[in-house]
Amino acid sequence: MTPLIRIQREDFSLQDEIDALSTGRADIGAVVSFTGLCRDEAGTLTALELEHYPGMAEVEMSRVATEAVERWPLMGLVAIHRYGLIRPGEQIVLVLAASAHRRAAFEAADFMMDYLKTRAPFWKREHRADGTLGGWVEAKAEDDDAAQRWS
Amino acid sequence: MTPLIRIQREDFSLQDEIDALSTGRADIGAVVSFTGLCRDEAGTLTALELEHYPGMAEVEMSRVATEAVERWPLMGLVAIHRYGLIRPGEQIVLVLAASAHRRAAFEAADFMMDYLKTRAPFWKREHRADGTLGGWVEAKAEDDDAAQRWS
Amino acid sequence: MSSAVATAAAGTRPVRIVYFAWVRERVGLPEETLDIPADLATVADLVRWLKARGEGYEAAFENEKIVRAALDHVHAKPQAALGTAREIAFFPPMTGG
Amino acid sequence: MSSAVATAAAGTRPVRIVYFAWVRERVGLPEETLDIPADLATVADLVRWLKARGEGYEAAFENEKIVRAALDHVHAKPQAALGTAREIAFFPPMTGG
After folding, report:
1. What is the CATH number of domain A4-148?
2. Do A121 and D18 count as a contact with CB atoms less than 8 A apart?
3. Would the CB atoms of B124 and C96 count as touching at under 8 Å?
4. CATH number of the domain where residue C65 is located
5. How many cross-chain Cβ pairs, A to B, lie less than 8 Å apart?
6. Is residue C3 situated within a structural domain?
7. Is D11 exposed, middle or buried (0-12, 13-18, 19+ CB in 10 A)?
8. Cβ within 8 Å, pair A139-D89
9. Domain spans of chain A?
10. What is the pLDDT of residues A8-32, one digit of tens each?
């Protein structure tokens, strides 16, 4: 099973990705999806700008996905991460994990997100509603802690 | 936040449910979905027949959902369970959990599935490819163990 | 127990009993309304009373520990008091999801 | 260490250095190709060498522990050997996802 990794400026469709994963087969019993969306932070934010390291992002996301495939019996794994200017309510990231049973699908999706958060080379900066360019979003210690759960 | 609970014979659309949950708002940062599908068990199965207890199923699913809403800061919670004859590859159950951050969404969806498995009054029986009516699917001890994680 | 026996003399009360999955198949019907003795205190008491009704019930409750019950749509353990429950359900462990 | 010093005399080697997010902003450029002394053994050695290049670098690596590095697209710790890496990246902790 080869994970599907995509890094793109354009939006994505969860339904299309699930269809691509599961149409025409009947061995999948469980699909877990995670969608990360841009929040407006109570109206103070007009956009998030996502910078990434083009050479490394795909390599690192693939590495994380390969780890997931080695740890869980998956029948499908998708990770899509957007970059560029993303408006509140828009999608930023998608992870899909498919397996025969739910435990593997849940854990693999959860693991993927924890590792994408702490290892995939993307950085968010805020564009504020008052017209100013906000600061770079700071990494959270809780994200590192979350990733530690899997080691 | 009032959870949406539906018990129905018809299929459902994950995309429609996500849209209904998130369109027009920008405070949701994370949506986790679980979709349970009918497996063909390596071609030996032509359908699963799902019997349910109409009077109790909605009450019990609502009770589980209310527990989830009390435990996690959710902005949306959906649980849909089908009954009747379901063919391999078709959807059986959907759980959606939306929150500002991913941890709550992951845990709430995971919790909902563990509890639906062990508390919602649904029973599966197999229709076999050889034309015979298979037995009722037996409950798994591992499902009880999974539900125990949350208490 | 002597007071329960005294109450029993007072008669019976009607309850709707519903069965699902293989419990339904073994009993042979999806539901029935029965006049049960008023002195049946718990779910387990009712199960023992039902088992005396015939072979189907005997087969359905062969392994009492496996069959689950609900009182008015709420899960109930064998030792739960029947109280004033009007609809009592019996079924195998759930396998939905 | 004496052998490293001996190698240094042998000269320099060119590497592409790329910067992201606020590291990029403080350094003032997204990337550059620099001839670095061949005796720089580790990521931390390179950071110290860069800091001596000017105020922007000094500001970018003010808190060395915070800045992350990658050698040819692979995360690397401060004590990691530069080896023959051709592209070296510096960036803040990731905040994607």
Report:
1. 3.90.1170.40
2. no
3. yes
4. 3.10.20.30
5. 99
6. no
7. exposed
8. no
9. 4-148
10. 999 999 999 999 999 999 999 999 9
